Amino acid sequence: MLNYSIIENSLNIKLECLSKQSLEYKDLISNTLKEQKTTQVDKKQAIAKLHALLENQNLECIHGGKVILKSNKGKTFKDDGVPIMLESDLLNSSIVACPNTIAGVSVPCTKVVNVKGSLSQKKVNNEYVILQELISACKTDKGFALKVSFTPTKFKFDHSFDPKEGLGEQSKNQIELKEPIIRL
Question: Which domain of life is it from (predicted)?
Fold first, then answer.
């Protein structure tokens, strides 16, 4: 009886807890075990492998304007000879042929001004990598999002997030939106 466990029924004897203290202790142990299992599942769900953006990919503003990608700091890391894009490589990149108009007036997106929501959590060459799955968190000078034609790459980065919020919510929390200003 010395090493008997109530939870595991190690002696195949069913014992009943009658004291209030014993019942509370039994509940505490069973709840702790349930929480540990739940925490392990949450940790598994909270890490995603996201793909790096490459220099040759088709990146556009939501109107169809093409972002000119040129990798400078990411040149040393290549996927089939194509360098990856780092934070400073995408920031201030030009956008050409954006057909955006407001009330008949041409208001094209001209450059990328915010990339905070699309960054990896690990640095490469002392800079963060741009992740394809989070690219919609990037903003143009007119406040519009970017879109990419997804292509799997050899460079995958672990990205943890709160499973209750999801990837998209976390990216939104990292950027500060400002009211757009239109001058006519």
Answer: Bacteria
